[in-house]
Structure formats: structure tokens, C-alpha cells
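Render F-box domain-containing protein in 3D.
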Amino acid sequence: MPSSRYQNRRPAAALAACGRKRAPAVSLAASRSTRRRRTSAGADSSSSSWASLHEDLVELIARRVLASDPVDYIRFRAVCARWRSTTSSPRGRGIVDERFHRRRWMMLPEGHGLYPGHGKLRGFVRFFNLSTGDFVRVHLPLFRDHCVLDSVEGLLLLQRDHDSAIRLLHPFTGDILDFPPLETLLRSTHPPQQVEEEGTEPWLPPPRLIAKLPAAKPDTGLSYHLVECDSEILAITITSIGIPKKVSVYRLTDLMLGRTVPVTSIGGNALFIGKRNLCVRSKAFPTIVGDTIVFVHINELYLAQYHLKSGTLLPASDGSIIGHAIPSPRSIIYHIHTCCYRQEWNKGCIRYQGKSQKWRVKRKWRHGGSPHQEGGKYQQMYFIRSSSKQTTVA
């Protein structure tokens, strides 16, 4: 006979007790269901109150979000159908409407030769925000037959492989603008001005002199740079002769008024100087020091940062640029510094890490991409093969 513990035998009193306990269980279940309905009703009420915001208020919030960052604007429109229908869609307007330009976003150079379109990236390209430090990964299969040449106002300038067409891409909305063929470039740029039928007034306004900035001279060792920082244009002078180096920063508006007042604070930002100059908010990147100028120290051959307040010059990060010996893993400083040099930024390379190699990807259509020795200086050139001749575009 099986053991009693495996038998389903209960005394009558126990069964009666169980019967008496079933009613509270049902009542408890009912109370839980009631609380669940009340909670869901409260959540629905809360969500409906946000969804039922007045259209004018939604548009006001949308304008402020868009002024901050177009990426946040896209997220704002994705909250609910009502907000999406009340606000303007960026799709189809990402290029022609400058409000949707991603000015503070840059394409991230991955390093190790992982250029946009590389098979290991599986069609994804990463971007980062110079002001917030946010990183976004975007799927852009377009790069399977395109090469990125430059980035302007957050838009990507591309070249298509099979016909050398130059195109403009908004990486978030997917909008594409095709430029006229390269064969029409010379014909469309000459003469420089057009005259009305009466022959009295030019169609294009004459150029206006804003300020004079002297050119760099080898004997003085001075170099001049213009950088946009917090809606201001700053003029930077760097002296490469003598140790320590001398770095000065001025506001362009002061120079236009004849005042030479050195700037000792740039709002906690860091200015990266190169072929292209960038303003980076130091609070978004812990390894970047605020109120500094980051540039290559020609004499000592390292990436330096000049502190405006103290006037001191220190290395910006570990590693020497001698022999391209930057260690891995790399600091974000080297990624940002590479963004200042298009010839390495668009090829998935990190400046001063590894030896410069020729651009051999898809060489059926493109040639160049590596520094060429010419007249004692390195000069970077891209050659695009058109149907009739080879044209230099940058």
C-alpha cells in the first residue's frame, strides 16, 4: 500500500476549512483585479493627458527640441501618433531645411581601416555628438557603392562608385540630393557673375570684406586659424618657433573693432586645430580638459593641449606620434583629432596610429588617398575618374 504522504486523503474538518478559505481567495483576487484596473486607468489617464496637449504647446516644445538637436526631435515625434501628426516630418526635408541639419554630429572614425561600407561593419556607421557625447549607430547600406568625401553641417558628401556622381546624404532621414555631373562643373562656374538683361545690376552680391587675417609665414612660425565656438568666431594664433609655444585666442568681433583682447575662457570647451577645426564640449567627454587648445606640437611631436587660463602646455593624451606609435585602446581625443583630417577620417584610420597606407579599396574607380611627397610637404589629393577625364575634386 502506498505511503500516506502520497495519498490524497484529507479529514472532513480539513476539507471544511479549505472550503471556508476559498471565499477570501476569490475576494483577494477581485481586489487585485480592481487595483490593476485602477492602476491601468491611472496610467491611461496620465498618458492621455500628455497625448492631449494642445497643438500650439506641442509645436512650441518641438521647436525648442529641434533647436537643440534634430535627433531629439525625431525621438520627440516618435512618442505618440498625435505628436507625430502635429509636427513637421523631417523626411524629405532633411537637406533643404537647415533646421534638420545635424551640425554638432560627426562620423566616428573606427580605426583599424574600418571605413564606412567595410564588411565587418555590416552596413552600420557610428556618429557622435560634439556637445553631448552621445553616440548613435545608423544603418546605411548606401556605403556599399559610395565613398564619403566630407561632412558639412552634419550632412555627408558622397561619391558614387560606378559613375562618380557627387551626392549629399542626410544620414538620419535618408534624404539624398544629387549634384550636377562633374562634366558641367567648369561650364557652370564661368563667368563668376551674371548680369541682368539691362546690363546694369549683377545678380550676385559683390563680396564684402569682413576682416583681414595675415597668412602664415615660414620665417615667423605663426599659423592662424578660425573656429566657431558657441555662436562666436574665434581667431587663434599658434607660434611654432621657440619653446614654450605661444597660443593666443581672440574674438573676431573684437578684431573687427580694432580691439586685441586675449580670450582666457571659452566656456569650458576644447578647440581641436587641424585641416578642419572643431569645438568640443569638455563636459561631454571626461578625458578632455576644458578651456584648452588641442593641436600637434611640431617640435616635440606629440598631441598637445594649451590651457588658456594658466598658459601651460601639456600632452593631451598618452602616446607619441613619433613613428605612429599611439597605443591601443585609444583615447577619444585621437578619434576627434582624426576628424580634423579628412584624408584619414573617411578611411576608418586613426591619425598617427600605424603607417599610412594607400587607399586600395574599390581602386577600380578611385585612386589616391595617401599622402604624397611634393615640395617637402605632404599634400592629400582625391582623384575621381569621370567618363572623359580624371578630375581632382579635393
